[in-house]
Design goal:
alpha/beta; five-stranded mixed β-sheet; three-stranded parallel β-sheet
C-alpha cells in the first residue's frame, strides 16, 4: 500500500506538466483535472476492486484499525526487527490491496479485543479469534450471561486446539482427561482456557486441573518451559510453530490429537454491516485470485485453508 500511494503522489507533477503544456486544449485540461483529483478511474478500480464497498469514513481515512494480540506466532507476532508479521498481517495486507486501504495492526491483550470493537478503538479484530455462537451473541462462555452486543465474523481459516508438553516429559498426557490433577498454562480468554475449565469440571476424586492463565501465549510457553506447569495448550498452528522453533525444536512436543476444529473469524462490531460485507468480498477476492493460497502455503498451514469467506460459520 505504501508503494501504491507513492506512485500516485509521484504521478501528479507529471500530469500537471502535461496539462500546462496543453493549456489551449480545453478537453485535455478537463481530463487532466479529473486525473489529478481522482486518479485514473479504471486503474484504481483494478488495483482496489472492492474499495467502493467500504463505509465512506473508512475509505476517506484510508486506514482500517485492527485490534490484535501480537504475540501468537505464526499467526501474528513481532520479528527480530520489531515488525508485525505472520499469517494475519499477510492476509490483512492482501485485503488492504483489495479495498484500497492500509490494515494497521494495533497490539492489545486478547480478552479486551471485542471490548475495543464496541468502544470503536478498533474497526476490526483479527487475532486467531475462534468464531463461536457465544461471541456472535455477546454471551460469556463460562456464565452464559449476556455481556455485550456480540460481533459478526468473516471466517478465514480453520484450526483445532492442541496440548503440548516439555519434550520427553509428557507425563502420560494424551487427552484432556489426562490433565486432571495436573497444571496447564494457557492464554486467558481463549478456547484452550475454556476447554481446560470445562474438562476440570469433569475430573473426579478431587483431582481437578490447575489452570494458570497469562496475557499472551508466549508467557504461557515460558511458564511451561521453566517447569512451572505440566502442559500448555494453543491453537494447532501456534502449538506446532512453538514445537518447531522454541529452543531449536528441543523444548516442546505435541501430545494427542487436536480437538475442537473451528473457524477463525475477522470480528466486526454488530451493526457495521457495510464493513462486514466489504471484508467478506475482499477475502473472497484474494481466495479467487490465489493470493490467499500463497500466504497459507508460505506459513505451512495449508490444512487450515478455507475455500470461501463465510459469515458467522462458527457453532
Amino acid at each position: 500500500m505504501t508503494a501504491s500511494t507513492t506512485r500516485r503522489t509521484a504521478a501528479k507533477p507529471r500530469i500537471a506538466a502535461v496539462c500546462a503544456i496543453a493549456v489551449a486544449g480545453t478537453m485535455l485540461l478537463a481530463a487532466c483535472g479529473d486525473q489529478t483529483k481522482n486518479g485514473p478511474r479504471n486503474s484504481a478500480s483494478a488495483q482496489a476492486p472492492f474499495a467502493d464497498l467500504l463505509p465512506k469514513e473508512i475509505k476517506d481515512k484510508g486506514v482500517i484499525k485492527v485490534g490484535s494480540d501480537i504475540a501468537y506466532p505464526p499467526v501474528e507476532f513481532k520479528d527480530k526487527s520489531g515488525k508485525t508479521v505472520g499469517i494475519d498481517p499477510d492476509i490483512g495486507a492482501a485485503l488492504g490491496k483489495q479495498l484500497g486501504v492500509t490494515f494497521e495492526f494495533q497490539n492489545g491483550t486478547f480478552d479486551t479485543l471485542i471490548t475495543g470493537l464496541r468502544s470503536k478503538r478498533y474497526d476490526l479484530a483479527m487475532s486467531s479469534m475462534t468464531d463461536t455462537k457465544d461471541r456472535q451473541q455477546g454471551i460469556d462462555s463460562e456464565t452464559k450471561k449476556k455481556v455485550g452486543e456480540g460481533v459478526d465474523f468473516v471466517d478465514y481459516f480453520t484450526a483445532g486446539v492442541s496440548i503440548y508438553t516439555r519434550k520427553g516429559d509428557d507425563q502420560g498426557i494424551k487427552t484432556w482427561a489426562d490433565l486432571c490433577g495436573k497444571k496447564i498454562a494457557v492464554q486467558r480468554g481463549t478456547v484452550s482456557h475454556n476447554l481446560a475449565k470445562d474438562e476440570s469440571k469433569k475430573c473426579t476424586g478431587g483431582r481437578t486441573i490447575a489452570i494458570e492463565t497469562f496475557d499472551n501465549d508466549l508467557e504461557a510457553q515460558t511458564r511451561l518451559r521453566s517447569g512451572g506447569a505440566d502442559a500448555g495448550s494453543s491453537d494447532f498452528p501456534v502449538a506446532a510453530y512453538a514445537v518447531k522453533t522454541s529452543g531449536g525444536g528441543k523444548d516442546f512436543q505435541i501430545v494427542g490429537e487436536q480437538v475442537e476444529a473451528a473457524p477463525y473469524g475477522i470480528a466486526v462490531a454488530k451493526g457495521n454491516d457495510q464493513l462486514t460485507k466489504a471484508v467478506q468480498a475482499a477475502l473472497n477476492g484474494i481466495i479467487k485470485n490465489g493470493e490467499y493460497g500463497k500466504i497459507i502455503s508460505k506459513w505451512g498451514v495449508e490444512a487450515g485453508a478455507v475455500t470461501e469467506a463465510k459469515l458467522n460459520g462458527g457453532s
